[in-house]
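Morning run. Coffee first, then this:
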Amino acid sequence: MATLLLRLLFLLGSPMTLLTCAAAGASFPVNVWPKPTSMSWAEPHAAVPVSPSFHIVASSGNPYLVSAAERYAKLLFKEMYRPIVRPAVNVTAENALETLTLAVSDLAAPLQHGVDESYTLEILPTGSATVTAATAWGAMRGLETFSQLSWRAGGRGQGRDLLLVAAGVRVEDRPLYPHRGLMLDTGRTYFPVSDILRTIDAMAANKMNVFHWHITDSQSFPIVLPSEPLLAEKGAYGEDMKYTVKDVKRIIEFAMSRGVRVVPEIDSPGHTASWAGAYPEAVTCAGKFWLPDGDWNRRLAAEPGAGQLNPLAPKTYEVVTNVVNDLTSLFPDGFYHAGADEVTPGCWQADPTIQADKERGGTLSQLLERYVSAVHPLVVSKNRTAVYWEDVLLDAAVNVSASLIPPATTILQSWNNGANNTKLIVQAGYRAIVSSASFYYLDCGHGDFVGNNSIYDDPNSDYKADGGSWCGPYKTWQRVYDYDITYGLTPEEAQLVIGGEVAMWTEQVDTVVLDGRVWPRASAMAEALWSGNRDASGRKRYAEATDRLIDWRQRMVGRGVRAEPIQPLWCRTRPGMCNAVQ
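And here it is:
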């Protein structure tokens, strides 16, 4: 019997559909985010129904992959995604998709920095599909791609709804960068575990692989550590605003089943006012107003919440040793983020013991070196690579000698001065994680959060073009997408950039607005670091990405992520009409 072709007439042949295909360029009737490295879809584009008995065949050798296979099989039937512009495809009705087989070479490969995440996906029009990958983690990326090539079509009534998947498709995919992360600050705002899990789930859907958990800060110490329970008892916002050991294990296991690493950060010696409730003898300038007389040059902290660990206090090292020991026991990842940003001179200088040390000829940089020379070897002794914010080396006032943080055991994370500081880091021989505030800080542009601020009391000014935010303006998805994290580097220097992270600092963010602040802007970075932000000719592809991101945002919303819109629906149904240039 001849193959039965059911022509889906949803907008097929209408001027809108023809324009959609023409405007999309390399886009397909249904697309994947992030855009794969290589994807082909035989023409005329075809799809097959998904059989009610569809199942995913996975080896039992990796429990995380088994969990992922079960989850994606359920998602396929649960998800009710209907593209805004209905795909014009031929449906081969007699060859329903029965199985997706996962073929993995090395099921035992651990989830660690640099693990192979490549995969090949093939969906045949004959009713079978295969994901081939070197590791379980690459297979998970292939499962996500497969899920995004499915959609609902037809009417919503009984017997009229079709679950379809693209057929005649081959995807060969791998990431450009091994480190594609999101940093979430839970020190300024406590987020329930459910928020963290939803965020990690969305990260995996975007093929992001590092959840950088900035756990503590000056405002609160929400994690309960077995050796130092007093820190959370005195430093958390409340009894119901703590992360227990059970919570941490749950988060790590949840992330592992999605191929996401969890990198912990306990920032120190700066940003540690929250430690003072438990150990006041170890913290300088705690409880003091952060900006004496409103004079920035006399500040005790970069923002409200003054307090820094005292490198001269023996208690400091007793507590920090316990903290590092506990964190490296709880978190299995090979990276440990030790912070070391924004050490404020005024806070240390306000302490009598440090004043006396300075009178004897000591310097603040020597104080930081004393601290780092104790902490760095401890971190390395736990078989960890130490990650620091760039300040530890580049801060103009307080920094350490490079000899104390050897490049072999150290990664530096950039956040100031755009590409300039990234270049300084790699020129010094360090691997770099790029989180430039000018491109990747998702909190920017919402105005400053400090109160009693007379700068706004001017009817003739909107407080400059930055919206009152030190790192304004707001970073739109296009701003995030277009950033090249190796800009200005030589090919040799660029090899030291291991990837990037968008940063969600939470002075003005809580559970109510979290999703919308992060998504889909984090998706923009996810694609730029997975397959790049340029087409085959080297031209930036933000114009082509717009419609795809609108579609991806809609799918994320259907999955329970409250991502903000990037354009009115009118724009997606009229391709190209909302562009700045036709």
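The chain is about 30% helix and 20% strand. Good start to the day.
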